[in-house]
Design brief:
Keywords: Oxidoreductase. The chain is α/β, with parallel strands linked by helices. Helix content is 35%, strand content 13%. Helix 1 runs parallel beside helix 2 (77-89), helix 1 crosses helix 8 and helix 3 (104-118) runs parallel beside helix 4.
Length: 285
């Protein structure tokens, strides 16, 4: 058994992009539980979507493992400042960079500001994501489809392309995919398509960057309790969110962080091109 929140959840909804501070229950990002052991000491990490959800949990874990953290986020300033405080409480530096990762120039600016501040980039976590739940193709506007592709795919490409020249041998790129890459959801058709592409991109990137000693992997989360859920799903779907997996509950962001730490650390030096499934019991092949 677990003391994690069980279904049904409280039906709730927020305006996109949402805030973890207004979620009930408030997600667990490892604030009181994650214990570091210096596995990322001296490293610098960029995390897109680092203000909340999985990105926030990874930021807290990385800081407690000894890394300085660059938190890229859209405009959720309160969430981002709160996350930065946890990084700083761990004795590490936090650099907050607000802006839209669908814009190539902003992605290049994230990398440039990181290099200016820290002199290098050891870890890149492409985690920012956009989705909307739609019941038919007719409901998906061209602009919405475009934003999904640009947030989930283009930003990953822009940031990787800009960051790789500043990454040393031993560097690690970790891209957030999804269980939907393997089991696409009909009401998340655009999002599911991007997540399948992320897995493929990560595999190609792993082979491409092997000669540089830079690894590329993906993490495929199942249903995780992040602001994206109440901000992009109808309240009745939020209420039962996570019930479909064998563990019959949603996962917490804190339950993802160890996978990202492992892939960022030197302990995974022979892992590249892999996809780590954290799905509550659903097999991802």
């Amino acid at each position: 058994m677990t003391d994690r929140p069980q279904n049904p959840q409280q039906a709730q909804q927020q305006e996109w992009p949402g805030s973890f501070l207004r979620m009930d229950p408030v997600p667990d990002h490892g604030e009181t539980s994650y214990q570091g052991s210096g596995r990322l000491k001296g490293k610098t990490a960029i995390i897109t979507g680092g203000d909340s959800g999985i990105g926030r949990a990874v930021a807290i874990a990385y800081a407690r493992e000894g890394a300085n953290v660059v938190i890229s986020y859209l405009d959720e300033h309160e969430d981002a400042r709160d996350t930065a405080q946890w990084v700083e409480k761990a004795g590490q530096q936090a650099l907050l960079i607000a802006g839209d990762v669908t814009e190539a120039e902003h992605c290049r600016s994230i990398v440039a500001q990181t290099v200016e501040r820290f002199g290098k980039i050891d870890i890149v976590v492409n985690n920012a994501a956009f989705q909307m739940t739609r019941s038919s193709l007719e409901e998906i506007g061209d602009d919405e489809f475009d934003r999904t592709m640009k947030t989930n795919l283009y930003a990953m490409f822009y940031i990787c392309k800009a960051a790789v020249p500043h990454m040393p041998s031993g560097g690690s790129i970790i891209n957030t995919a999804s269980i939907n890459a393997d089991q696409p959801k009909p009401k998340l058709i655009a999002y599911s398509a991007t997540k399948a592409a992320i897995v493929n991109f990560s595999g190609s990137l792993a082979a491409l960057l092997a000669e540089k000693g830079i690894r590329a992997n993906a993490v495929a989360p199942g249903p995780i309790w992040t602001p994206l859920i109440p901000a992009t799903m109808p309240p009745e779907q939020v209420e039962s969110f996570g019930s479909e997996v064998p563990l019959q509950r949603m996962g917490q962001p804190a339950e993802l962080a160890p996978a990202y730490v492992m892939l960022a650390s030197d302990e995974s030096s022979y892992m590249s091109g892999a996809t780590i499934a954290v799905t509550g019991g659903v097999a991802v092949i």
